[in-house]
Amino acid sequence: MKSCLVVDDSKVIRRVARHILETLDFTVAEAGDGREALEHCTVSTPDVVLLDWNMPVMSGIEFLRALGTTPLPRRPKVVFCTTENSAGHIRAAIDAGADEYVMKPFDRETLESKMQIMGLA
Ligand SMILES: [Mg+2]
Question: How far is the CA of 43 from the centre of ligand 1 (A)?
Fold first, then answer.
């Protein structure tokens, strides 16, 4: 089974994402901000991280940059989520190491196709 860490400060979004990912046969863990996510990755690196952009404590882009300098046994794939349809955000996230992105609100079909592109579904 593939593992996904859902990182979002919204409990509702985490719940929706968890439900979708579980129907795609992922084992799901959750984190409420980038720092929690980074701690999770150092203890148990998931196959993929679904990453919110705007979060307190440590944002999505800060998490990506920190992940890049953290020694891990392997690199998780990162799909970042944004509500802001900004080419600048997408560019910044890809430059910081994101593999894919999705626009919120995302649905099962969108997530499944992103996972397929990355070879995870
Ligand atoms: Mg947020």
Answer: 23
